[in-house]
C-alpha cells in the first residue's frame, strides 16, 4: 500500500500542514519538528508526488546536476546525498556528465528550461555557466568551484586546512624530507592544498623535498616515485594531492620492496573507497561528502523557493583520517 502524507503525519506525531511545510522547505518549521518529519519520511520510505507538486508550483520538479566525471567515489557520494535530500522534497535529480558549456547536455538542461535549479559539481568554465544561468533566471549552486569571486552561492572545502593538517601530521611524526605531488594547476583545490602544505613546513623552517605538479591519476604518482627510486633519492614522506596519486606512490614503493610506512610514509586526499582497502590502509584527508551534498541541496532549495535572495557561501572543514600508511620516521 502506498504511503501517503497522512501516514507521515501520524508517524511523526505532527499535523499534515507541518509535514507539507517541511516538504516545501518552509522556514517557519522548528528544527526539532522538521527532523521528526524527515525521520518519519525516511522510515516509511515516503516519496512525494512530484508531478502533482510540480503542477501546483508551476515548475518542472527537476534539478539538474552537471559534473565532469562520475569515475570518482567522492563525487559519487556527493551525488548520492544530493539525490536523497532532493527526493525528500519531491525533486528528481537529472545528472549530466559534461565536458563544457557547449555540450549537448548543457543545451538540454539549461537552454530548454528543463530544470528548476542547477548544481555544478567541480565545474570548469564556471563563468560561462553563471552568465547563462543568471540570464535565464535559473537558481544555481556551485560545489568545489575554481574561482573565489564566484563563491556567492557555493559550497567549498577548506583545502588549505586539509593540506596544512596533512603536512603537520607528517612533521609531528618527525619527518623533514617531505614531498608533495599535486594535481592540475587549473584546480583551485590544487593551489590551496599546496599552500597549506607549504605553510606547515615554513612554520618549522623546513623546505619541501620536492614539489611536482601532474594529474590526479595513479600513473602520475607511480611514475614520479619510480623516478625517485632510479635516482636513488627518496623522501621520507609524501603528501599526495589525492588518493589516486597516493596509490601510485605506494604501488611503486612496494614493487621495489620499500616498506610503507617504515621507510616512506604516505598521505592521500579525499578518502575515496580504495583508501580503506589498500594494504597498508591509507592515511588521508576526508572530504565529508554527506555534509557537502546536504549543504548544497539545502542552499538550492532555499534559492528555488525564494527564501535565499542574497549570496551565501558554506565552507566545510575536511578531516585527517590516520590509518596505517604513516608512522614516525626512521629514515632521514
Residue runs with pLDDT of under 50 for 5 or more positions = none
Query: Could you tell me the mean pLDDT?
Result: 88
CATH class of the largest domain: Alpha Beta
The global form is elongated
Strand order of the largest sheet: 2-1-3-4-5-11
Biggest sheet features: 6 strands, parallel
Intertermini distance: 67 Å
In total, the number of domains comes to 3
Helix content: 40-55%
Helices, by number, come to 12
Q: What series of H and E elements makes up the topology?
A: HHHHEHEHEHEEHEHEHEHEEHEE
Strand content: 15-25%
- CATH architectural label of the largest domain: 3-Layer(aba) Sandwich
Summarize the structure.
This protein has 332 residues and is of the alpha/beta class. It has 12 helices and 12 strands. The protein has 3 domains: 1-46, 434 Repressor (Amino-terminal Domain) (Orthogonal Bundle); 50-157 and 289-317, Rossmann fold, CATH 3.40.50.2300; 159-287, 3-Layer(aba) Sandwich (Rossmann fold), CATH 3.40.50.2300.
Please explain how this structure is put together:
By secondary structure, the protein is of the alpha/beta class. It folds into three domains: 46 residues, lambda repressor-like DNA-binding domains (434 Repressor (Amino-terminal Domain), Orthogonal Bundle), CATH 1.10.260.40; 137 residues, Response regulator (Rossmann fold, 3-Layer(aba) Sandwich), CATH 3.40.50; 129 residues, Response regulator (Rossmann fold). Helix content is 44%, strand content 16%. It is elongated, with a radius of gyration of 23 Å.
Please supply descriptive tags for the structure shown above.
single chain; transcription; Rossmann fold; DNA-binding transcription factor activity; six-stranded parallel sheet; LacI family transcriptional regulator; 332 residues; alpha/beta; Lambda_DNA-bd_dom_sf; 3 domains
